[in-house]
Amino acid sequence: MKPEIVHRLHRHFEDYVHDAGGVEFWYARDLQVLLGYKEWRNFVKVVDKAKESCQTTKHEISDHFVDVNKMVPLGSGSEREIPDIMLTRYACYLIAQNGDPRKEEIAFAQSYFAVQTRKQELIEEHILLTERLKARARLRESESELSRNIYERGVDESGFGRIRSRGDMALFGGYSTQTMKERLGAPQNRPLADFLPTVTITAKNLATEITNFNVAKEDLQGERAITDEHVQNNTDVRNLLVRRGIRPESLPPEEDLKKLERRVRSQEKKIAGTAGRLTNSETGTDED
């Protein structure tokens, strides 16, 4: 996510934070707009899913979701009462987690509410970390699909390993998977992708997705035909990167994804404890 987008969204989200007895909260009606939901009834469904998640994690729903009513102006100059919900940072985080991360507002919110201090630079860092984790998950999924596809077409597990290795050589300018592990200081018994930057993981995934598509479309059979297809796709992706000044084999290694994942998960587990709790006695408090 581009820094200017993070800056804009950070400013918007900060504009709507409230305080009740030292506990930060957001109103659901405001969060609906911030997350890009047009209809309240659709947003309420996401809130209900978040409540289920809250219950699953053994936290009291009433500590984080408090029903309130508020007055809104009408065009005639009068007012009417509408239902709303006070949401702690943890509640907002659960709502964001139950949304569509392809929407930039929701992808931002997932990191915004996960970071305790909500400083922009920490949010940007968290977004980069989660984007890398998501890219790795997509690659894992596409490689699993490739393994299933080629098994149905006469290629065994050893053949799958050879196909993937040849693809790596094409992507990394002739360097084998093992050689790339040595260059990056990655253990030989760990997947290379766990030490690659997001752009390279995404490149590997794109090549694999194209291979999956063409294997099915062209009904490719056997190791040789599928290898040729996979090598060509990795070569094409490499050429695109090189034209943009990116040589995959020359990029520095990134932090071990296993360690990164543990750190992110540990951080997210602490959200409920650091978000504070709302009580019915506080629902009338709103001090900005």
TrEMBL record:
Signal peptide: none annotated. Residues 22-108 form the Bro-N domain. Residues 250-288 are annotated as: Disordered. It comes from the Archaea. Residues 277-288 have a biased composition (Polar residues). It holds the Pfam family Bro-N. Residues 255-271 have a biased composition (Basic and acidic residues). This is DNA-damage-inducible protein D. It comes from Methanoculleus bourgensis (strain ATCC 43281 / DSM 3045 / OCM 15 / MS2).
